[in-house]
Each structure stands twice: as C-alpha cells, then as structure tokens.
Amino acid sequence: MHEAILPRVIFSPGDLALGLAADLQKLGATVTLFSPGPVQTAVHNVTADLSYFERELAGRGDDYIDLLKKHPLTYITLARQVQSELIAAAFAAANRGEFDVIHLYTNEEDIALPFAQFCSVPVVFTHHDPFNFLVKYKNVFPKYSDL
User: Which pTM value belongs to this model?
Assistant: First the structure.
C-alpha cells in the first residue's frame, strides 16, 4: 500500500487492511500497520525504505503506475524486496516483545512462511487471491503445518 497507487491500482486488499487496522484500534487494540509507503490511517504506520525503488523510478523517468504498466517484472521484483523488508521488521519487533501477534496480509505469503518459525509470537496469514492459493500454495502450506 502506498498513497501513490491507492486506490488507482490496489483497492480491495488495501481497503481491507486499513479497515481491519482501524476497527481493531476502535476495539482498544494497539495496532501497527507496516506498509510500503505512507497511507491515511489513524494507527501507527511503519513504512519501508523506498529509496532504491525511487532511484529506479527516477532513472526511468517513471512513476509507480508507469513502472507497473511498462515493466511489471521489475515492479514485482522491487515490491517483493519491500515486502521482505517489512516482514523482517515486523518479526524483529515481535521478537523484541513489541507485538502479541503478527497478521500478514501480503500478496506474496511465501516470502514470510518459511521464516514464521523464527517469530516469537503467533503469525496469522490472510490470503487474498484464491487462484494463486490453489496454484502456488497448496503444496507449500502443508510443509509448515506445525507452525
């Protein structure tokens, strides 16, 4: 999620994540939302270091939408890097005792799944794309059924 692409490209996953964070806060929970870029939210928002992404955009003369449309593989590669860094930051914070639970709602859960065993708190995964779940994850999730 990033204000530069919401809601022009990513709408439903972003809306769901923002809504969940806001509702949990209304119920009295302390919520930290990790997102690639800044988003409009009342909860604590931790954002990624997008400097390498921004350098790639500047070098191409593109914005986020241009890069996504013209060079989707480059965009996806950079987005996976950002997601990896956010997941690592969330797990590290949990291991320092800052969180009781981690809820991951990314489009690439396979990044975090093997590393969830190193997180000291429960990790909950929400999956968005049922087609990818069937194709990509049906053989991966059983490997980690003990988590």
Answer: 0.82
